[in-house]
Amino acid sequence: MRDKAQVSGYITFFIGVALLAFTFISAYLFLSNDPTIPGSPDLVSVFGDALAPLIVTCIRIMYLGIMGWIGSLLTIRGVQLLTQLKSETKTEIKPIAPTTLKTPIPKTTGIQKAEKTGKTRKVKAAS
Question: What's the predicted TM-score (pTM) here?
Answer without folding.
Answer: 0.55
